[in-house]
What we know:
Keywords: DNA damage. GO terms for molecular function: catalytic activity. The structure is a single chain. Helix content is 41%, strand content 7%. By secondary structure, it is mainly alpha-helical. It has one domain (10-105): Arc Repressor Mutant, subunit A, CATH 1.10.10.10. The protein has a two-stranded parallel ribbon with strand order 1-2. Strand 3 and strand 4 (99-100) form a beta hairpin. The longest helix is centred in the N-terminal third of the chain and has 13 residues, at 10-22. The radius of gyration is 14 Å and the shape is globular.
Amino acid sequence: xxxxxxxxxxxxxxxxxxxxxxxxxxxxxxxxxxxxxxxxxxxxxxxxxxxxxxxxxxxxxxxxxxxxxxxxxxxxxxxxxxxxxxxxxxxxxxxxxxxxxxxxxxxxx
Length: 109
């Protein structure tokens, strides 16, 4: 029996992966934004879980997903934070006070 507490069904997973793959270079999307676009507005944490569990060899641009405050969700001291910031910076995304301007860089699907 499937656990009904925040289940991540296959269709939702596929929609999220498709959306992430659609985020253009130099743009970002928020976890909640992706959940809304996938038809599950209250599932931003599920989006985070999917990203956390991406296969190591995934080519999805996971680094383009940030939180609704325009921040990278990893701890600023972490290697993953540095990796994500480096990837975004290489795409032309500018950080000011460790934040990305959503007004400037948010993908409008």
